[in-house]
Specification:
The chain is mostly beta strands. About 5% of the residues lie in helices and about 40% in strands. It has a four-stranded antiparallel β-sheet with strand order 4-5-6-7, with no helix packed on it. A four-stranded antiparallel β-sheet has the order 8-9-10-11, with no helix packed on it. A hairpin with a 4-residue loop joins strand 1 (about 5-10) and strand 2 (about 15-25). It is globular.
Length: about 160
């Protein structure tokens, strides 16, 4: 069988997940994203050319934000902040990694609930849906456009024309 599979391996004993890749017959299994990178990850999708994989994950190795001051934020700011919304699971974002395991990077900063993605046939766009809506992500520029502001449902597909 030709081709490759990208999948999430879950270890019940350590309660961790890793992003894996293997030949379609199960041989040559490799870890692309180890179990210590994210508390949870899911829904890997190969790009149409097979060179990249997009997936949903919570947390992750983001650079620390720079702060203007080491002083704590005033209590008033925290009091005026919007309340935390309840979600099905941990707030997640889309991430991308090359199929060879290099260049792991975040694509969104939306904290969506279980975002499910699909590539456009030409690989230029990634459509994804979550509890807050349906989105289009320009895979090259990284810009996100919200297409619809209601829950997109449990599935998504892209019809080539």
């Amino acid at each position: 069988t030709k081709g490759y599979l990208a999948f999430v391996r879950t270890s019940l004993s350590s309660n961790t997940q890793a992003l894996m890749i293997a030949q379609a017959d199960g041989r040559g299994t490799r870890t692309l994203v180890g179990p210590s990178k994210f508390p949870t990850l899911m829904f890997p999708q190969f790009s149409p050319d097979g060179g990249r994989i997009v997936f949903a994950a919570a947390g992750g190795p983001r650079p620390k934000p720079t702060r203007r001051s080491d002083r704590p934020a005033p209590l008033l700011v925290a009091w005026l902040a919007p309340p935390v919304a309840s979600a099905h699971g941990l707030p997640m974002d889309l991430w991308m990694i090359n199929a060879d395991g290099t260049d792991l990077r975040p694509l969104t900063d939306l904290s969506e609930d279980d975002p499910v993605s699909v590539w456009s046939p030409d690989g230029r766009w990634i459509a994804f849906t979550g509890a807050l809506g349906l989105y289009l992500l320009d895979a090259g520029r990284g810009t996100v456009l919200r297409v619809h502001d209601e829950n997109g449902g449990a599935g998504l597909t892209w019809l080539p024309r």
